[in-house]
Specification:
Blueprint (H helix, E strand, L loop, with lengths): L15 E9 L2 H10 L4 E6 L2 E5 L4 E7 L11 E8 L3 H13 L6 E4 L3 E7 L5 E7 L18 E2 L2 H6 L15 E8 L3 H12 L2 E6 L3 E5 L7 E4 L15 E8 L3 H13 L4 E4 L2 E5 L5 E5 L3
Parallel strand pairs: 1-4, 5-8, 10-13, 14-17
Antiparallel strand pairs: 1-14, 2-3, 3-4, 5-10, 6-7, 6-9, 7-8, 11-12, 12-13, 15-16, 16-17
Length: 291
């Protein structure tokens, strides 16, 4: 397995993803979906924005925008991935999808995880998954994490329902597990997220996708060119990703990333909640630390 990064000062092992900010066309419609089908809770609402999670820390922000349009083979969100704590929680979620007759796009065994894919009312991609125990993860001879798209053991997942209470809401401890983005070019995407942000490259999927992480995780970030090499950013009033947050444990770690961005002549915008930077495909990344 991969144990070292080829760049100095990679992101610390306890770096985490925080919030994903999505733009939606109708907040009321979206809230109904995210509460009814995903079982998320609205922690607070301010005007046309709502903050959701599983009863603890927010991990999803929905903001309604006027005159919203749909992206068309642009860069931007492929999916955001919600990590549930147990296989039982995944089974309860799947049963709720059946009960609510919610559309599902796919159910997959990725070797490192078990995942269910679905769209929200605006077509924003969602993955809900549980990690398999790390000792079950597999690695290629060159150290790359091994992932695949195998059929999900639906019977095995649903059998977990005998071990727990009936579904009421998304399990506590659910967090934002990873992001997966459409980008314009794999090479400059890897250069940005590895050499500037500081993620480790865990595997490349041919010449069309790559997966990166901190701390040896299978991936905190996926990037792909499945919308076409050279895909352009969506219009500002398009539904989809506004930005996502990377939470570094210390301000000194954040300063290292900001220094790399400055040396690469990249623009960072200081905000009250952190530092916003855009990747080469104009996907927004908010960097922050608790200090």
């Amino acid at each position: 397995m991969k144990t070292a990064s080829p760049i100095p000062n990679p992101l610390p092992q306890n770096t985490r993803l925080g919030l994903v900010h999505l733009k939606v066309s109708n907040l009321s419609t979206s809230l109904n979906f995210y509460q009814r089908s995903l079982g998320l809770q609205v922690h607070r609402q301010a005007g046309k924005a709502a903050y959701l999670g599983s009863g603890q820390k927010d991990f999803l922000v929905l903001t309604e925008i006027r005159d919203a349009t749909l992206p068309h083979r642009n860069s931007g969100l492929y999916h955001f991935a919600v990590l549930v704590p147990t296989r039982l929680a995944l089974g309860q979620f799947l049963q709720n999808l059946v009960n609510t007759q919610t559309q599902v796009q796919g159910m997959v065994d990725h070797i490192v995880s078990e995942a269910i894919y679905l769209p929200d009312p605006d077509g924003n991609g969602i993955e809900v998954y549980r990690d398999k125990p790390k000792e079950q993860w597999q690695y290629e001879p060159n150290g790359d994490i091994r992932m695949a798209n195998l059929p999900l053991d639906v019977d095995g997942v649903m059998a977990e329902l005998d071990k727990g209470d009936p579904w009421e809401k998304m399990a506590g401890g659910t967090v934002l597990g990873h992001m997966h983005l459409h980008i314009s070019q794999i090479a400059n995407g890897i250069n940005f997220y590895k050499d500037i942000i500081g993620l480790d490259l865990m595997m490349e999927w041919g010449r069309t996708a790559a997966f990166m992480s901190s701390g040896g995780y299978h991936h905190h970030l996926g990037i792909n060119t499945w919308n076409g090499v050279g895909a352009t950013p969506p219009p500002l009033n398009s539904v989809g990703l506004d930005h996502f947050t990377v939470e570094l444990p210390n301000f000194s770690d954040l300063e290292i990333v900001l220094s790399r961005a400055e040396k690469a002549n990249l623009v960072t915008k200081k905000r009250d909640d952190g530092y916003l930077i855009k990747d080469p495909s104009q996907n927004g990344v908010l960097l922050k630390s608790p200090e």
